[in-house]
Amino acid sequence: MGVPLRRRAGRSVYRESTPDAAVAGVVERAWTGVVGRRRPLRVFPDGCVDLVWDGTVLAAVTTVRGVLRHELPSADWTVGLRLRCGVGGAVLGLPMTELPAGATPLRDLWAVGARRAEARLAECGAPDEARSVLESLVAERLRDVEVEGLSLAAARALRAPDARTDRVAAGLGVSERGLRRHVRHDVGVGPKELQRVLRFRRFLERVEAVARDKTSLADVAADVGYADQSHLGRECRRLSGASPGALVRSWTGRNVPD
Q1: pLDDT of res. 177
Q2: Residue 58 carries which DSSP code?
Q3: pTM: predicted TM-score of the whole model, two decimal places
């Protein structure tokens, strides 16, 4: 699940924190959101799965093929755990190709365990309490499933700007077909598409630097692996529905040419 380009927008606040060591192998970040009011949020593809408690429902939220419009509830706070890219299928217990984009109630996947967690979450009076419940739920899950790590290692390798899927497969000791099978199961798309998503994610991490005039879109395009700025523009529109300049403007409010 993507995150806001800015950590603060009006009354809404988003903060990340380091997960508990017991789940750090599969959890990339813990986060807390203060929504302030009900509103839609653009969720950009990142190849990850977020386990999200919104005060009412515990859900697995994912998008990997394109931008998603997600409705934020009017809640005092929300809490989530972002699973590392490449572990979703193993942790959730189903091929990610079978999970639709958006929010899926976790009770539909984990039945009694998820319902029990929802009951505990409903009693939490603060975000830290709820985060501990989520981390305990994932820790319990890890005792029942095996995360072999091949897709996780593939996702890490595919982040490199010059990564090639044939070399990644060879480095992991599998065929390209085997790599594709594993990555599709654990992420929801094949290695080449995941590589495009991860490259776009690297661009999003540099939006603030462009907005603060520390670099340019052309330089960022070259740094993260795009052929040129036009290539960045095409991929940005395909994966976010907006131009690179529009994403920078959404961060800063200034007019930035594409």
Answers
A1: 97
A2: E
A3: 0.88
